[in-house]
């Protein structure tokens, strides 16, 4: 179950066909993204009173200030810019069975912040402002499949017209593509993490193997006895949320302590963390052919990792009850480690040194994947699944808990339990087969 960064692991002609199609879609995109001063973005302006950066329509999102005080973590108080987008969007894949194998309809799509220009995306990836036509562009293709049918309806449409930028891919093919740096985008990974368990029936074949392969298969399929029952996991999570004091309030962007701006860019005074930058965009095959917008540009590549331990024949993921200032419910279950190592001069987060120091044979998955390019500029994280050695303790700090993959997938049916990075890693775990 070693990690690969190419398609040699079983693509054959089908993979070559995909790569030819994807290269052609990249060539046809006509994508041009150029940096531009925030003060010159068309349709965007700083509010005279607050300094907040918003769109002339009053839609999409606003860049504003946030002040945080908390009893959680090493830093107890800070201020920062944040992208405030209260809209609920739609991420959607169409799925059909072909000879008993699930196939997903995906698209090659560019986002202005993507480092690799094009990524493999869901067929619908749109905020409410986008599909309401605020950009005055064309309609979002296939949107009706996700807005018109009643909840839970099974869609069967053999006459579905598939445009050149869309393609049916089998689920095993998409799993293989997850081993390629920067190819499968974060929204596709998020949707795939929500697939029901029966889509992973082939994982059961790993039960004939030994060691971690079988332990992972039991973890995904819900077999064996978890170290903590789901009720106990929820009790742990509720306790973690109640244990910390969190006070988050929106403040004006102008005069934000520790930050330079607003102006051509918004940057931190010591050059760390992130900056807010502007871009101007031209692209074919998008609902709008050109537009300007701000993006959040992180400094350096982040690291996202689950420590995985075989506990009585069942693989468990070490979950961290993680507070993030922009979350609607303040805290969600995240990976064991989620950080930008360059942003911790005072000392590394717990378990970071362990994850970075494991031997190569204990690395189950290792790929650099991009984050959401519609709001983030050249944002990448190194995603890791690492096998714990025998000495790694079952007794862990109070904000951590051992959870099986099946338990975590079950919690995805409910909002605000599992964060985006943990969802991505769950999808990456499924790519091990």
Give an account of the 3D structure.
It is globular and about 65 Å long. Helix 5 (186-193) packs across helix 10 (420-430) and helix 6 runs parallel beside helix 9. It has helices spanning 12-28, 128-131, 144-147, 171-177, 186-193, 212-221, 230-243, 352-357, 405-411, 420-430; strands spanning 32-36, 44-46, 53-55, 62-70, 77-84, 90-92, 94-98, 101-110, 118-122, 124-126, 166-170, 246-251, 259-260, 266-268, 274-282, 290-298, 302-311, 314-323, 331-334, 337-339, 363-370, 380-387, 400-404. Helices cover 20% and strands 31% of the residues. Among the domains are: 12-32 and 89-150 and 157-180, Nucleoside Triphosphate Pyrophosphohydrolase (Alpha-Beta Complex), CATH 3.90.79; 198-246 and 299-430, EvaA sugar 2,3-dehydratase subunit (Nucleoside Triphosphate Pyrophosphohydrolase, Alpha-Beta Complex), CATH 3.90.79.40. The chain has 433 residues and is an alpha+beta fold. The strands form five sheets. Strands 17, 18, 19, 20, 21, 22 and 23 form a seven-stranded mixed β-sheet that branches. Strands 1, 13, 14, 15 and 16 form a five-stranded antiparallel β-sheet that branches. The termini are close together.
Blueprint of the fold:
Layout: H1 12-28, E1 32-36, E2 44-46, E3 53-55, E4 62-70, E5 77-84, E6 90-92, E7 94-98, E8 101-110, E9 118-122, E10 124-126, H2 128-131, H3 144-147, E11 166-170, H4 171-177, H5 186-193, H6 212-221, H7 230-243, E12 246-251, E13 259-260, E14 266-268, E15 274-282, E16 290-298, E17 302-311, E18 314-323, E19 331-334, E20 337-339, H8 352-357, E21 363-370, E22 380-387, E23 400-404, H9 405-411, H10 420-430
Parallel strand pairs: 17-22
Antiparallel strand pairs: 1-15, 2-3, 3-4, 4-5, 4-12, 6-10, 7-8, 8-9, 8-11, 13-14, 14-15, 15-16, 17-18, 17-20, 18-19, 18-23, 21-22
Helix pairs in contact: 5-10, 6-9
Pfam family, one: Hexose_dehydrat
Protein name: NDP-hexose 2,3-dehydratase family protein
Domain dTDP-4-dehydro-6-deoxy-alpha-D-glucopyranose 2,3-dehydratase: 17-157, 231-429
């Amino acid at each position: 179950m070693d990690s690969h960064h190419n398609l040699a692991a079983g693509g054959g002609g089908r993979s070559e066909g995909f790569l030819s199609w994807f290269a052609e879609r990249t060539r046809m995109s006509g994508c041009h993204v150029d940096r531009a001063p925030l003060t010159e973005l068309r349709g965007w302006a700083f509010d005279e009173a607050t300094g907040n950066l918003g769109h002339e329509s009053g839609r999409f999102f606003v860049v504003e200030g946030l002040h945080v005080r908390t009893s959680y973590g090493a830093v107890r108080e800070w201020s920062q810019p944040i992208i405030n987008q209260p809209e609920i969007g739609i991420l959607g894949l169409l799925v059909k069975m072909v000879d008993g194998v699930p196939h997903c309809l995906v698209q090659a799509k560019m986002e202005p912040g993507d480092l690799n220009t094009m990524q493999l995306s869901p067929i619908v990836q749109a905020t409410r402002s986008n599909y309401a036509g605020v950009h005055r562009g064309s309609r979002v293709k296939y949107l009706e499949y996700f807005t018109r049918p009643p909840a839970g309806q099974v869609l069967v449409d053999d006459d579905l017209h598939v445009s050149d930028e869309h393609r049916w891919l089998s689920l095993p093919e998409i799993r293989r593509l997850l081993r390629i740096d920067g190819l499968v985008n974060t929204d596709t990974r998020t949707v795939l993490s929500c697939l029901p368990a029966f889509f992973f029936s082939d994982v059961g074949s790993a039960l004939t193997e030994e060691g971690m392969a079988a332990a992972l298969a039991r973890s995904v399929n819900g077999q064996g006895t978890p170290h903590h029952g789901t009720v106990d996991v929820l009790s742990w999570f509720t306790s973690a949320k109640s244990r910390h004091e969190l006070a988050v309030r929106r403040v004006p962007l102008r005069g934000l302590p520790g930050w330079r701006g607003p102006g051509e860019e918004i940057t931190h005074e010591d050059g760390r963390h992130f900056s807010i930058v502007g871009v101007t965009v031209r692209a074919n095959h998008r609902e709008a052919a050109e537009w300007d917008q701000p993006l959040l540009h992180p400094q350096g590549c982040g690291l996202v990792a689950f420590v995985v331990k075989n506990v009585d024949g069942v693989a468990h993921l070490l979950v961290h009850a993680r507070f993030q200032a922009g979350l609607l419910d303040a805290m969600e279950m995240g990976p064991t480690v989620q950080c930008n190592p360059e942003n911790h001069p005072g000392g590394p987060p717990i378990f970071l040194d362990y994850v970075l120091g494991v031997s190569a044979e204990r690395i189950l998955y290792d790929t650099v994947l991009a984050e959401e390019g519609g709001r983030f500029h050249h944002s990448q994280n190194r995603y890791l699944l690492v096998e714990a050695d025998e000495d790694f303790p079952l007794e862990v700090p109070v904000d951590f808990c051992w959870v099986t993959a099946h338990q975590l997938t079950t919690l995805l049916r409910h909002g605000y339990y599992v964060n985006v990075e943990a969802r991505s890693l769950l999808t990456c775990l499924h790519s091990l087969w």
